[in-house]
Amino acid sequence: MTTTAPAIVPNFDADEQVGRKLAIICSKGSLDMAYPGLILANAALGEGVETHLFFTFWGFDMINKKTMGDLKFTMLGNTATHMPQGLGGLPGMTAMATSKLKKSIADLDVPEVPEFLEQIVASGGHLWACRLSADMNHLDEDDLYEEVEGIISASDFIEKTDGAQLLFI
Fold this sequence. Notes:
Blueprint: E1 21-26, H1 31-46, E2 50-55, H2 93-107, H3 113-122, E3 126-130, H4 131-136, E4 150-152, H5 154-160, E5 165-168
Parallel strand pairs: 1-2, 1-5, 2-3, 3-4
Helix pairs in contact: 1-3
């Protein structure tokens, strides 16, 4: 006889969201992939959810002081731009696409990545850097955005976010 685990169904009618936790793994460092994690973290914090972001692999660019203010958006290989793919490889197209995306984001009063991270921390969010990514890139805490709480292993992040909903971006 096999038994199934009971379904976990959130109670959205509760006045108080006790113990809710969200863990977001940010693994991509392009401008278009930076925003989904930041927007979801901001929304969760607005709902009173304990929120942790873990920056790993290319997502490390979001918290690296040298790169966080200059993330790029490329059309190359991105079919969602609805543009001919050959255009993405032309000189100047990444700069043009990045500029256009930054303008669209600014027009909606969404902050740029460094300011968004600042807002998330001010709202109680937690920022963590991946130990493996730091080691691969020969970076330490001095290279990172000041509000990153630490460089930790994936196992440490799993422990810190025990019981959390997990999003991998």
